[in-house]
Design brief:
Length: 76
């Protein structure tokens, strides 16, 4: 799946053709919420695709860590 940035004629690929629904099904909700935004930023910054994917994964892990901390505080 390919998106075009408005007025720029530049493309970025969604992570291996995955859309928000598939990422949700894989239980990667943070990636599903942010993949387009991070993809557009990666194109603007001329970042390699692997760096884009790494950013998505790091964001998902950070969100999970934050959720775990909140749950532990609530349960504690």
């Amino acid at each position: 799946m390919v998106d075009r940035l408005p007025g720029r004629g530049v493309h970025f690929l969604h992570p291996i053709g995955l859309g928000q629904g598939r990422l949700k099904r894989l239980r990667l909700p943070a990636m599903g919420r942010q993949y387009k935004k991070l993809g557009q930023e990666a194109v603007k910054q001329n970042r390699p695709y692997k760096d884009y994917l790494l950013s998505l994964l790091e964001m998902e892990v950070a969100q999970r860590d934050e959720n775990t901390q909140k749950r532990l505080v609530t349960e504690g």
